[in-house]
Amino acid sequence: MLTQEEDVDAHALRRRGWSISAIARHLGKDRKTIRAYLNGERTAGVRSPAGPDVFEPFVTYCRERLVEDPHLWATALYDELLQLGYDRSYPRLTHNLRTRGLRPVCHACRPAGGRPAAVIDHPPAEETQWDWLELPDPPRSWDGYGAKAFLLVGALAHSSKWRGVLAEAMDQPQLIDAQHQVVVRLGGLTRVWRFDRMATVVHPGTGKVTASYAAVAKHYGVQVKPCPPRRGNRKGVVEKANHTAAQRWWRTLPDDITVADAQARLDQFCATVGDTRDRVDVDGNRCTVADLAARERLAPLPATAFPAELAVERVVSAQALVSFRGNRYSVPPELANGPVTVTHRLGSPVLAFVTDRGVTVALHHRAGDGTGATIRSEHHVTALNKAALAAFTTAKPHRRKQRIPPGPAARHAAQVLRGATTTPDPVVDLTVYAAAAARRRNLP
């Protein structure tokens, strides 16, 4: 077979008067091959079949089966063809399916990329888009965070201004708490909150708002609208914000940073980088995201956050302290190194610390997040000092190279194991022998 370049060279040399033999020697090909290409009997880049096409009889069956079921596995189709007399290998089947284009595109399952997309109008102060972003491998020093951290991102659909708040989990209390913090950072409320089909907001199957979240929507006075199924472009503003947060903030976050510092760095990034992006307003004038956001007349927030009950699991330290949102709170010393649940009703200034049996053992006023404060009760400090003094000992610790041979009890146990004796050795009282000797000296 000749390539396109070799075919061009062969025709050019032939027009110069070269013979077929000379062209064949120059290109390193057979004379019959050169003659076939020069006469138009063969096409460059197309290999002549070595024999009859054994797959041709099965083309119609494969096409019809894949039209009926575009997701039919090639292995299942291969099993059917074997029963119909197909005697070639499975890789040869998949090669023919690809090269002949026998598998049609399933438009129902086709991703959003490449589809025609309608222009969606986003009036000012109309819609806030919400989405969770999973962040892998958080710093190990973050209390309460496991293999993943979670960032709730809220974006104004009109101006594309966005803010995010870190959370330990994606349950409903964490969602409500993070949402309140985000809308505070955004500066107010829009008329509609747009979600994907997250189970904490709507029923995934029907798209209906859950009863527990309906109370939240009423508290903030917003409408809840889920995205239509398989319409990822519907909340593209927050999706792009997620991508930016993952690549330009989370990816470069150092290991020795605290949760509060990471949140502060994100807020600074949104204000200095996200809000300075260039935009064009409805009149065609160039502006920034911050300029568009300033023109949105957002509704004011309620006086207090929705009173959801937030509960997180913690392990008490050896100093009887519990970490929560960048601060430490004291509990009774008998709970040291054990589990405890920190509960907080949103909007309340009080934290409650509950044991695994449901007993509330401490109440503290909540300090500001990330302040590094240590809140101790006086009676907790007194109890901790007493427990520490009671556990104090003056016993001399054993040295690593000290010689301590087996004692009498250990030797007796060893003899029992060897079967030498099952009872202790008898103790002989010598006073009995002394009395008997005295009697024999006084003969009758």
UniProtKB/TrEMBL annotation:
Database matches in PROSITE patterns: INTEGRASE
InterPro entries tied to this protein: Cro/C1-type_HTH, Integrase_cat-core, IstA-like_C, RNaseH-like_sf
Record-annotated Integrase catalytic domain positions: 120-308
Domain of life: Bacteria
Single biological process term from Gene Ontology: DNA integration
Name under which the protein is recorded: Integrase catalytic domain-containing protein
Organism field: Nakamurella multipartita (strain ATCC 700099 / DSM 44233 / CIP 104796 / JCM 9543 / NBRC 105858 / Y-104) (Microsphaera multipartita)
